[in-house]
Amino acid sequence: AKISQLEEELEEEQSSLEMVNDRLRKTVQQVDQLNNELQAERSMSQKNESARQQMERQNKELKAKLQEMEVAVKSKFKATIAALESKVQQLEEQLEQENREKQASVKGLKQKDKKLKDLIMQVEEERKQAEQYKEQAEKGNTRVKQLKRQLEEAEE
Predict the structure, then answer these.
(1) Alpha-carbon span 9 to 113, nearest angstrom
(2) Is the entire prediction scored with pTM above 0.90?
């Protein structure tokens, strides 16, 4: 009876041991699977971190390049604006000079025009006088001829 009880206990222990071994095997398999998944996640995480760092470097490089380009464009625009302002100043001075010259020319032209009018009036006056002198000379010549005729008639 004692042996059969011990055999029964032995069977229960063996059965219990098999169940524990089964559970241990399943647990080991789960641990292996979880380790594999963990390894895959770590690998993916490293790849993502590496990609993130690469993108950050590229971002910094692009920002630096953009800033350089903005500075270059600003300085180019400043130089262009300065050159254009200088050109405008030069053209304004040239225009001012041309306006002064034009005013001087207009003034000179007005003076010459006045002088011309005065000379035309003087020439017209002298022409009238010449006509008067011519008329007087003709009258004088006519009178001389008349007197000569009268003298000739008187002598005859």
Answers:
(1) 149
(2) no
